[in-house]
């Protein structure tokens, strides 16, 4: 389902590489990351969350901080879990509403990730390109 207002909101964001993600990033609400979902942690009813490992579309950049783990909780988790996207799908994730979590519990994954995980709870603007359609997810 393509929504012109959400499409326009994402079109006005500056796309940045995953390696540039940092809590000191200026104006995160104007930034977005384009990535490929490479791993999924399914919805957990115990924690009320799910997570994805997002990686740079160019696999050569994944070795140089080209991956980030993204957690979804609250209403964001509900909307993301209903969308049914999975590994291999392309996403455009706006950083508006992001919480930065120091990644102290290193999950062993191929490649190298940035030092922080991203967490979205109630505010989320996400565009997912599935194999046959485009889905917009908005949570406020």
TrEMBL record:
The lineage of its organism: Eukaryota, Fungi, Dikarya, Ascomycota, Pezizomycotina. This is Uncharacterized protein. It comes from Amylocarpus encephaloides.
């Amino acid at each position: 389902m393509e929504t012109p207002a959400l499409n326009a909101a994402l079109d006005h964001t500056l796309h940045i590489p995953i390696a540039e993600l940092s809590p000191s990033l200026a104006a995160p609400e104007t930034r977005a990351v384009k990535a490929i979902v490479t791993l999924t942690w399914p919805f957990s009813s115990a924690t009320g969350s799910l997570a994805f490992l997002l990686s740079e579309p160019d696999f050569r950049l994944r070795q140089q901080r080209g991956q980030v783990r993204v957690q979804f909780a609250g209403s964001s988790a509900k909307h993301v879990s209903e969308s049914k996207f999975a590994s291999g799908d392309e996403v455009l994730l706006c950083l508006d509403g992001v919480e930065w979590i120091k990644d102290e519990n290193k999950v062993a994954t191929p490649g190298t990730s940035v030092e922080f995980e991203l967490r979205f709870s109630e505010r989320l603007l996400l565009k997912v390109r599935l194999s046959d359609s485009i889905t917009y997810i908005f949570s406020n």
